[in-house]
Write a structure and sequence with these properties.
The protein contains four helices and three strands, in the order E-H-E-E-H-H-H. It is mostly helical. It has a three-stranded antiparallel sheet. Helix 2 runs antiparallel to helix 3. The chain starts with 7 loop residues before the first strand and ends in a 6-residue tail after the last helix.
Length: 161
């Protein structure tokens, strides 16, 4: 499960808010320096399937391993690759934070009249952003692997390739 594979988290407890959004964990699955912190709300009842997959062995369908692969690729040439990862994840976190603030305002407005609809809004927001984080990490994995391959080919001339 997602809770078994967490590496780093920051917990926010906000007692003045409804319980669904009052407890918020920011979790990073991978090395904190080269990973994105994803918001996980208490009021969310499920996560995209990839977030529940993960063992000690790399798996293509695992969010945990995707984020770990990006971190590992970044460590192969930290000075070159880490800035690429950090810039992309910082942009993702900033976009997510803006959207999160808008969603929380909408949640609070809706919660007073229809708590179930507010929870539905929260779940849809979470599903959308957690899936988007996977796409960003996948794009980073491909970009970094391409750069690594180019670096290897430049250092070790592959004749006839």
């Amino acid at each position: 499960s997602i809770f078994r594979t967490i590496n780093t988290h920051i917990l926010q407890v906000r007692p003045g808010l409804p319980k669904e959004i009052g407890r918020l964990d920011f979790m990073a699955e991978g090395m904190a320096d080269l990973c994105v912190f994803l918001p996980l709300y208490q009021g969310v009842s499920s996560y995209p399937k990839a977030y529940g997959v993960g063992t000690k062995h790399s798996q293509k369908r695992s969010a945990y391993w995707l984020f770990r692969k990006v971190s590992a690729l970044g460590m192969l040439d930290y000075n070159r690759y880490a800035p690429i990862i950090k810039e992309r994840y910082a942009a993702l976190e900033a976009d997510m934070d803006r959207s999160r603030q808008e969603m929380e305002a909408a949640f609070l407005g809706l919660h007073a009249q229809d708590p179930a609809a507010a929870v539905k809004l929260l779940q849809a927001w979470s599903d959308r952003w957690l899936a988007h984080a996977l796409r960003v990490a996948s794009d980073l994995e491909e970009q970094l692997f391409t750069l690594l391959t180019q670096d290897i080919e430049a250092e070790y001339k592959f004749h006839g390739a």
